[in-house]
């Protein structure tokens, strides 16, 4: 007996596979670099660019990984997200993200434990600074 299987697009997305029509492709990001600027004291801006992003979340994750690694390089354990502007042009995704870095857990809604985030980035193949 032959059985047909229906595969949910959500399941494919969770596995890093994208389905478009009859075509199934793997998520293949090309991380093109991070530019870091110290704005003032503990305020840092990260400009990242990549191709092959599925959506804004992939670019956000790349900037977050850069911020977490930068905090560790500077001897800090935490970062707090302030804002991220993401745009795409001609298949190249760019983000301009601003974070504060700190030695202790900062206030705010989007705080990062730098060691945990960097480990997560390594597990997912996302480069850091």
From TrEMBL:
Which region is the signal sequence?
1-19
**Highest taxon of the lineage:** Bacteria
The name on file for this protein is Lipoprotein
Which UniProt keywords are present, listed alphabetically?
Signal
Give the originating organism: Pseudodonghicola flavimaris
């Amino acid at each position: 007996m032959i059985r047909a299987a229906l595969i949910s697009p959500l399941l494919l997305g969770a596995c890093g596979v994208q389905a478009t029509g009859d075509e199934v492709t793997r998520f293949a990001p090309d991380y093109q670099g991070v530019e870091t600027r110290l704005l003032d004291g503990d305020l840092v801006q990260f400009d990242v660019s990549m191709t092959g992003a599925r959506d804004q979340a992939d670019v956000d994750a790349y900037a977050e990984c850069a911020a977490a690694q930068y905090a560790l390089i500077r001897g800090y354990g935490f970062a707090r997200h302030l804002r991220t502007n993401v745009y795409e042009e001609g298949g190249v995704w760019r983000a301009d993200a601003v974070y504060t870095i700190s030695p202790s857990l900062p206030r705010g809604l989007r705080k990062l434990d730098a060691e945990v985030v960097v480990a997560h980035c390594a597990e997912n193949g996302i480069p850091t600074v």
